[in-house]
Amino acid sequence: MKKFLNLFKNPKLKAVIILSILLFLYTTICAISYAENVSTDIAESVFRLHILANSDSKEDQELKIKVRNSLLDYMNSLCSNCKSKEEAIILVEQNKEKFREIALNTVKENGYNYDVKINIGNFQFPTKNYGDISLPAGFYDALRVEIGEAKGQNWWCVMFPPLCFVDISSGIVPDESKKLMEDNLSEEEFALVSDSSNAEIQFKFKILEFFTNSGLITAKN
After folding, report:
1. Residue partners of 125: CB distance under 8 A and separation at least 6
2. CA separation for the pair 49, 74 (Å, rounded)
3. Quick check: 116 and 103 in contact, CB under 8 A?
4. What does each C-alpha distance from 76 to 62, 79, 125, 126, 178 come to in angstroms?
5. Which of 203, 158, 157, 167 is nearest to 65 (CA)?
6. 155: left (phi over 0), alpha (psi -120 to 50) or beta
7. % residues pLDDT > 90 (the chain)
8. How open is the CA angle 205-82-183, to the nearest 5 degrees?
9. Distance (Å, rounded) from C-alpha 67 to C-alpha 36?
10. Which band of pLDDT confidence, cut at 50, 70 and 90, is reported for residue 79?
11. 5-14, 54-63, 106-115, 175-184: which range is least confident on average?
């Protein structure tokens, strides 16, 4: 500490240290601002589905997939023609009990007595790939489905734009879904989610993930 304080006795060195500290603070503030703005803008155009299994047992994970498939079948007929996130949320809100009924029936049909909880809220998500589209970590509005104790591994997808229906064999998102996302995002934001192989974009994803995980980007009230 004494050696560090002695450095400030040299006027030129003192100026360099102060400028370096100010530059670091400026860069950090800019990075936080960028991460928060981009995360918010992307999140405002996306409505997601989040399913939590009862546990990590093989049986409970298999049940989660069966519940997922049942919900996707219903969701496809309900939300496939939505043109905005707001429209998708309204439809889901109006049919929330139907989602729960479908999930609960699937649980019972497979011989389990787990309860199912359905909730629409703003939740934290990690970076996630959907075919050739990637969404950065952040807080997103989502329909959360909790099976039983909801202590198992999660499953995520996107209800709007409809990215849940990606062709798994090709890993390609339908052009209609991309067009909906492109219409709702800035040019930079769309490039961010549609070209995650780019080194610069990967770095920006890391910035978003770091500030989300550190609590500097928080959920909406």
Report:
1. 48, 50, 135, 137, 138, 139, 140, 142, 156
2. 13
3. yes
4. 21, 6, 22, 24, 17
5. 157
6. beta
7. 27
8. 45
9. 33
10. confident
11. 5-14
Residues 172-198, buried b or exposed e (16+ Cβ, 10 A)? Answer: ebeeebbebbbebbeeebbbbbbebee
Q: Which amino acid is it at 146?
A: E
| Distance of alpha carbon 91 from alpha carbon 95, whole angstroms | 6
Retrieve residue 153's tokens. 């591994």
* CA atoms in the 13 A half-sphere facing the CB of 202: 3
Q: Largest Cα–Cα distance in the chain?
A: 78
> Helix, strand or coil for residue 210?
helix
The amino acid occupying position 111 is G
Q: Between the CA atoms of 165, 127, 26 and 2, what dihedral angle is there, to the nearest 10 degrees? A: 180
Question: Angle at CA 154, nearest 5°, toward 175 and 195?
Answer: 35
Nearest to 120 by CA among 97, 151, 153, 154: 97
State the Cα–Cα distance between residues 162 and 180, nearest whole angstrom. 9
Phi, psi of 29 (to 5 degrees): -65, -45
pTM: 0.70
Please state, in angstroms and as integers, the Cα–Cα distance from residue 35 to each residue in 31, 41, 190, 216, following that order: 6, 10, 15, 9
Q: Which of 68-82, 109-123, 140-154 has the lowest mean pLDDT?
A: 68-82
Q: Which residues pair with 172 in a beta bridge?
A: 167
